Amino acid sequence: MNKQQFMKELNRSLKKLPDEERRDISQDFEEHFFIGKQEGQSEEDISSSLGSPGQIGKEMLAVYHLDQVQSAASTGNMFRAIWAVAGLSFFNLIIVLGPFIGLLGLVLAGWAVGISFTVSPVLVLAELIVNPEASSIFEFFMSLTLAGIGLLISFGMLKLTKWLTKTFIWYLHYNMRLVKGGAKYEYR
Questions:
Q1: What is the full per-residue pLDDT of the chain (188 aa) written as tens digits?
Q2: Are residues 65 and 47 in the same domain?
Q3: Is residue 184, in this structure, part of any structural domain at all?
Q4: Which residues, including other chains, have CB under 8 Å from residue 147's CB and lie 6 or more apart?
Q5: Mutual orientation of helices 137-179 and 75-86 as an angle, nearest 10°?
C-alpha cells in the first residue's frame, strides 16, 4: 500500500473524529512517511510497518473517547468510550461489554432500592389519604425507617457510582494497553 492509499484509508477510518483531531493524526502519519523516505524506505515498507489504517483508526477513536470521558465523565461519553474500546476486537467486545453490563445492572438495582426506600413514606401517606382505615401508625413509622435506610443506600450508591466510573475508566485504559500488546500507551 502506498502513502496515498494508506492516508486515504486512515482518513476514512477517522471520520468520526473532529476535524482538528483528524488533521493532527494525519500530520503525524505524514511525518512518519517523510522520515521514512529520508531514511531510504519505500512507501510500501513504511505503510506496512505502521500497521493497518483501519485498526489505527479504531485505536485513535478509542483514545479520543477515553480522553473525553476523563475530562467529562458523562453517561454519553462513557458509552462512546466503551463502544470504541469494545470495537477494537471481537474478544474485546466480550471482555469490556460483559463486565460493564454486569456492573451497570448492580448499580441500577442499588439506585432502585435506595430511591424506592426513600419514597416509601410518600406512598404510605398516599395510602392513608385513599384508605384511612387500612393504614396503621406502625406502617408509617416503618416507612420512615425505610426512608432513612434508603437515604443511606442512595448516599452509598453515589459514592460507589463515582468509584466504579473511575475504576472502569482505568480498566478501559488498561484494556487499551493490553490490546496494543502491553506497550505503554501515550495519553494526550
A1: 888 888 888 888 888 888 888 888 888 888 888 888 888 888 888 888 888 888 888 878 887 777 777 777 677 767 777 767 766 666 666 777 788 888 889 999 999 999 999 999 998 888 888 887 877 788 888 999 999 999 999 999 999 999 988 888 888 777 777 666 554 444 43
A2: no
A3: yes
A4: 117, 118, 119, 120, 121
A5: 40
**Total structural domains within the chain:** 2
Cα–Cα distance, 93 to 83 (Å, whole number): 8
Q: Looking at beta carbons, which pairs linking 105-113 to residues 24 or more positions away fall under 8 Å?
A: 107/157, 107/160, 107/161, 107/164, 110/153, 110/156, 110/157, 110/160, 111/154, 111/157, 111/161, 113/150, 113/153
Same domain membership, residue 66 and residue 45: no
Looking at the structure, tell me whether residues 26 and 86 fall in a common domain: no
The range of the structural domain enclosing residue 32 comes to: 1-51
Looking at the structure, tell me whether residues 78 and 46 fall in a common domain: no
Q: In this structure, are 41 and 81 located in the same domain?
A: no
